[in-house]
Amino acid sequence: MKVLVSVKRVVDYNVKVRVKSDGSGMDLAGVKMSMNPFDEIAVEEAVRLKEKGVASEIVVVSCGVAQCQETLRTALAIGADRAILVETDAELQPLAVAKILKALVAKEQPGLVILGKQAIDDDCNQTGQALAAIADLPQATFASKVEVVDGKAKVTREVDGGLETVEVTLPAVVTTDLRLNEPRYVTLPNIMKAKKKPLETVKPADLGVDVTPRIKTLKVSEPPKRGAGVKVADVATLVDKLKNEAKVI
Ligand code: AMP
């Protein structure tokens, strides 16, 4: 079974991003970029499926600027077999990425498509669901456990207040939650090996996809700054302030 995994290049999760002074977006000049953490989990899961003998080939896909090649090389170093860069300088919104992935699903015919549940830059949580809808595939989102048996995937999902187990017929779309696995460290020998693995570059137009954005960002702003706190003399004063100033009790 072939597994297709999407990996997005995003601002590293340790970076504290700043809003541009004109409010048009984030200031990304010179900022460290990495693989979206949920996608690292997706690649790790695919590699584990291959190690168990369930998956036979892992194809990783990234859509975006030429530097996404670095993200793909990291995925190849974790254990993916081959990579596809869908290169464009255009702003890519989840629907456009879903259309690209749909075209690649038609071309590659994977048994399973694994995406992160969410990209930590746009926090959209839409691409996996959109792909399942437009490619007419079953979906199991927020997976914390995946078992593939007899052409079906049994997926445990993290839902409010507990766990839900669903079964989907393959081919299907699965999106990863944080507790699905802990991605392995990338070793130097594997980084060297990854340099020799195949990486193909295509353009969205080669796949017949129009990536024109449908949503316009009107404004981006910082959260309001927290005001300074005050020390109160005793409990009675605290209760009085909560009642009469903060009006929360
Ligand atoms: P989102 O819907 O933007 O929160 O993203 C959910 C998931 O879709 C991510 O974790 C990725 O697996 C995938 N994805 C979104 N954008 C891209 C992209 N530009 N390239 C590759 N994968 C992407």
Explain what you see:
By secondary structure, the chain is α/β, with parallel strands linked by helices. It has one domain: Rossmann fold (3-Layer(aba) Sandwich), CATH 3.40.50.620. Helices cover 27% and strands 28% of the residues. It contains 6 helices and 13 strands. The chain has a 9-stranded mixed β-sheet, with helices on both faces. The chain has a two-stranded antiparallel ribbon with strand order 2-5. A two-stranded antiparallel sheet has the order 3-4. Strand 9 and strand 10 form a beta hairpin. Helix 2 packs across helix 5 and helix 3 packs across helix 4. The longest helix has 15 residues. It starts with a strand and ends in a 5-residue tail after the last helix. The structure holds adenosine monophosphate. The site of adenosine monophosphate (AMP) has 23 residues, from helix 1, strand 6, helix 3, strand 8 and helix 4. Adenosine monophosphate binds next to helix 1, strand 6, helix 3, strand 8 and helix 4.
Helix content: 25-40%
How many structural domains?
Answer: 1
- CATH topology (fold) name: Rossmann fold
Query: Which series of helices and strands comes N to C?
Result: EEEEEHEHEHEHEEEEHEH
Biggest β-sheet: strands ordered side by side in the sheet: 11-10-9-12-8-1-6-7-13
How many runs of DSSP E, i.e. beta strands?
A: 13
- Gross geometry: globular
User: What's the story with the biggest beta sheet?
Assistant: 9 strands, mixed
Question: Average pLDDT across residues?
Answer: 96
Segments where pLDDT lies below 50 for 5+ residues?
Answer: none
